[in-house]
Amino acid sequence: MNMQSKNFSLVTEIFLLGFQNIQTFKIFFSLLLLIIFFVTVCGNLLIILAVSYNRSLHSPMYFFLTQLSFSDILLTTIIIPNMLHILFYEGTSVSFIGCLIQFYLFIATEAFECLLLTVMSYDRYQAICNPLHYTTVIDKSFCLKAILLIWLIIFCMILMFSVTMSQYQFCGPNVIDDFFCDLDPVLELSCSDTSLVKIESMILVIPIVLFPFTVIIVSYVYIIFTILKIPSVTGRQKTFSTCSSHLAVVFIYYGTIITMYSFPNMGDVKKILSLFYTVITPILNPVIYSLSNRDIKQAFRKLLSKVASGLPTSWLKGLPHL
After folding, report:
1. What angle do CA 45, 46, 50 make, to 5 degrees?
2. 95 - beta bridge partners?
3. pTM summary value
4. Contact status, residue 322 vs residue 287, Cβ threshold 8 Å
5. Residues paired with 22 in a beta bridge
6. Comparing C-alpha atoms, which of 204, 44, 203, 209 is closest to residue 118?
7. C-beta atoms surrounding 146 within 10 Å
8. Distance between CA atoms of 116 and 208, rounded to whole angstroms?
9. What is the pLDDT tens value at each position of the chain, 322 positions in all?
10. Crossing angle of helices 96-129/233-262, nearest 10°?
11. DSSP secondary structure, 189-207, as one string
12. Distance set, CA 252 to CA 115, 270, 282, 283, 284 (Å)
């Protein structure tokens, strides 16, 4: 065993293959990614600014929405620039440390979004099912404690992974057939027994994915029963509209993750699913919330009006009336 280990050359650099089958459409795909990156960052940043500058939106629901937007911006920034580099050079090399950092940031944003969507569903449950006690249960203190607790859980998760993986040797091959550093492709580079970190990841699925998803489902079962008890059709529609955006995001996000990790050996199909929840989902969130939420649309108009009013008159001549 000692003699074999001496023949191993430890991995210091990793080559990400990306999408090798779409080089014919490289320019088109690159432009599409650039547009998605721009729209995702600007759309989510616009939500954060609109909520911040509009006092009527200073409520727990919209505070959590800004946190979701922040998470989407972070995830997009982690994934898309590196994807563009891979497309341009038909693969790219990253340091092993850089690959691990991307992996830790990736799982941090994914875990944050899972737990945040759970807190948002609990917020909607209290608002619809217990409206008289809502302001006493969901206050500023609850919001801050919830976010801090989420980040504490994420810190413990990353610490556990980093401590375990620091004990492994990675001796190659140094090629990952993917567009970012995920857990399974990284572990395939290890020449150590990786069963411990695999067990840890399976255990973490319970508090990070399964338990939150169960809480969301139970919350919405109670919400739907409460909505059905509302006598007027208009009242039911108005109440359901306050949580329809969140429900749509939950189904898109969890549906993709559960499908991908339930069938891990799917080759290029897994890449497409990964592309969906790392690139497409962050852009869908601002689109869904801005199109279906009247308060957000009004906040957008007010924010754009403020921006337009601060521009020189000569700049506004060619702009449509707001």
Report:
1. 120
2. 13
3. 0.86
4. no
5. none
6. 209
7. 22
8. 10
9. 343 444 456 778 888 887 777 767 778 888 999 999 999 999 899 889 888 888 888 889 889 999 999 999 999 999 999 888 888 877 788 888 988 999 999 999 999 999 999 999 999 999 999 989 899 999 999 999 999 999 999 999 999 998 988 888 888 688 888 888 888 888 888 888 889 998 988 888 888 888 999 999 999 999 989 888 888 877 787 777 777 777 888 888 888 777 776 665 666 677 777 888 788 888 887 787 766 677 777 777 777 777 666 655 554 455 444 4
10. 150
11. TB-S--HHHHHHHHHHHII
12. 15, 16, 11, 12, 9
105: amino acid identity, one letter: L
Residue 94 bridge partners (DSSP): 14
User: In what order do the strands lie in the sheet containing 92-95?
Assistant: 92-95, 13-16, 175-176
Asked, as a colleague might, if the bond just before 173 is cis with ω within 30 of 0, I would say yes
Contacts of 156-161 with CB under 8 Å at 24 or more apart are 157/107, 157/108, 157/111, 157/204, 157/208, 158/104, 158/107, 158/108, 160/200, 160/204, 161/104, 161/107, 161/197, 161/200, 161/201
- Provide the CB-side half-sphere exposure for 303 (13 A, CA): 20
Q: Residue 176: enclosing H or E segment and its boundaries?
A: strand 175-176
Number of Cβ atoms within 10 Å of the Cβ of 190: 16
Give the three-state DSSP class for 285: helix
DSSP secondary structure of 123-134: HHHHHHH-GGGH
Residue 199 to residues 33, 193, 194, 196, 264: CA-CA distances in angstroms?
Answer: 35, 12, 9, 5, 16
User: What is the residue type of 165?
Assistant: M
